[in-house]
Structures are given as structure tokens and as C-alpha cells.
Design a protein that fits this description.
single chain; five-stranded antiparallel β-sheet; 10 strands; binds molybdenum atom; five-stranded mixed β-sheet; binds ligand MTE; about 25% strand; globular; alpha+beta; Sulfite Oxidase, Chain A, domain 2
């Protein structure tokens, strides 16, 4: 167990173990219901543990020898949206990252400008609620310094990440765009980056080109791909269905700590 690079951290293991105990009588539930149930059971514990150790603690980092030979592509693999397709066809030359909302200086940055921001490279494990994990190396702009450049207004408490992709879903038009949100503790965490490279190569479309979030203390669905706009906000209300993310609006926990 201790030699397995894919092992979960002992704290996550403790959370999963208790979640497993709690789930013992739930075998009739479908796989997705069990995933939700496990999250629901583990969330308060994970959050309490993170609070004890400090939300600023680093997620485990690995070595290049630990990289998964094939990192799974999950959720949207290629946004169907015509505006995204046009940007991709042009090699993202016309793509801009917009930073707006409760900021003093709204920004509109080219990919080269994003690449010139203070950056970090990290090898971390991605854990999806569907029950798979992969280890990858991510390079990207640190979100904290980027927010400082825009200058957060004092009322800002959350960062909303607006994505390019519309998902196939029964929700009405307007509620089918992927989005995510994190609080300012996670936004300023040193491992929270907007990644433009993976395993030393430019980010592929499958993994979220040209820019995707890595917020390493949380689960896979928080890792927003195809990020177009970062909006500083005082509340999660008024975005999507108001629960802070595409999957949160469908019942997942907002704080997906691991
Ligand atoms: N824009 C967008 N971001 C997304 C998703 C998505 O469908 N669209 N899926 C999420 C889920 S559930 C997971 S597990 C990861 C998958 O990232 P990967 O394709 O790089 O493995 O992206 C997350 N971010
Ligand atoms: Mo996921």
C-alpha cells in the first residue's frame, strides 16, 4: 500500500473509510447515488480535517516517474459551441481570458499574457467522484497573483469560473454551460493555478485547452476546463441555479475537499 503512488492520502483514506462504513447499508443505490452519498458523508469530515490542518496545507505532490501513462479525459472532450470551435480553429490566437466582476481593474489577457504571469508546475493526483484517479503534471498561472493584478474589491468572496462548453442536459438553455466557483482561501492557495500545459506539452482540447483550473485540494469536477472568464463575486446566487457549479446545481457538494 505504502509503495502505491496512486494511494490516497491517509486523511482522504480516513474520510473514504468512514464514508464506506456509512455506505455499508446502501448497496441498492445506483453508482452515481453512491458517489453522491459518499461525498455527502465524507464532506463534513474532510472539511473539518482541512480546517484542523489549515486550508493552506499543500496537496501531495508526486514525481515524473508517477505520471499516469494515460490520463483519462472526462466530461466534455471537445466543446460543441461554435464560438469555442472558431477559437480552437485559430489556434486560440483570438482567445482572451476575461477577469471581471468585483475587481478594480478588469483584465482581458491573451494566452501569451497568461503564460507570462507568475507560474507554478506541480505533479498531483486528480480524483473523480466516478471512482478513478490519474496523476499528471500541470503548469499554469497562479490564480492569487492574477487576482491581485485585477485588484479584488472588498465585497468579493468567491471566484466564478465561466467555461466555454455547453453540456447535453435536460436543463433549460442557459443552465447547461459548465461553470465552477471557489472561495478566496482556495483561490489564493499556492497550488491553485490556471493550467496551460500538462505533462510538459500545451494543454490538449480534451483536457481543457487553452486554460483549465487546478484546485488541488478538491475533487475532479471542481477542475474547470475551457475557462473563458473569471468573475469575482460576493455571492453564488444568480449564477446558474445558484449552487456554485454545473454539478453542484445537480446535487454535488460545493466544497469537494479531498
Ligand atoms: N468545462 C468543463 N470542465 C470540467 C468538466 C466538464 O465537463 N466541462 N468535467 C469535470 C470532471 S467531472 C472531471 S473528472 C474533470 C476531468 O478532467 P480531464 O478531462 O482533464 O480528466 O474535469 C472537470 N471539469
Ligand atoms: Mo469527475
Amino acid at each position: 500500500m505504502s509503495g502505491d503512488p496512486h494511494r490516497r492520502g491517509w486523511l482522504a483514506g480516513l474520510g473514504a473509510g468512514l464514508g464506506g462504513l456509512w455506505l455499508a447499508g446502501c448497496d441498492r443505490l445506483s453508482r452515481s447515488e453512491r458517489a453522491l452519498g459518499a461525498l455527502g458523508a465524507a464532506e463534513p469530515l474532510n472539511r473539518a480535517v482541512q480546517r484542523l490542518l489549515g486550508r493552506s496545507a499543500l496537496a501531495p505532490e508526486f514525481t515524473r516517474a508517477d505520471l499516469s501513462p494515460a490520463f483519462k479525459v472526462n466530461g466534455t472532450a471537445n466543446p460543441p459551441d461554435t464560438d469555442y470551435q472558431a477559437l480552437a480553429a485559430g489556434g486560440f490566437a483570438d482567445w482572451r481570458l476575461v477577469v471581471d466582476g468585483l475587481v478594480e481593474r478588469p483584465l482581458s489577457l491573451t494566452l501569451d499574457e497568461v503564460r507570462a504571469l507568475p507560474a507554478r508546475t506541480q505533479i498531483t493526483r486528480h480524483d473523480c467522484v466516478e471512482g478513478w484517479s490519474c496523476i499528471g503534471e500541470w503548469t499554469g498561472a497562479r490564480l492569487g497573483p492574477l487576482l491581485d493584478r485585477a485588484g479584488l474589491k472588498p465585497q468579493a468572496r468567491f471566484v466564478i469560473l465561466h467555461c466555454a462548453d455547453t453540456l447535453d442536459d435536460t436543463a433549460p438553455e442557459g443552465l447547461r454551460k459548465y461553470y465552477e466557483s471557489i472561495d478566496l482561501v482556495d483561490a489564493r492557495h499556492p497550488q491553485t493555478i490556471l493550467a496551460y500545459a500538462m505533462n510538459g506539452a500545451p494543454l490538449s482540447v480534451g483536457h481543457g485547452a487553452p486554460l483549465r483550473l487546478r484546485v488541488e485540494r478538491q475533487l475532479g469536477y471542481k477542475q474547470a476546463k475551457y475557462v473563458m472568464r473569471i468573475e469575482a463575486a460576493a455571492t453564488l446566487a444568480g449564477h446558474g441555479a445558484g449552487k456554485g457549479g454545473f454539478w453542484e446545481d445537480r446535487g454535488y457538494e460545493w466544497y469537494a475537499g479531498i
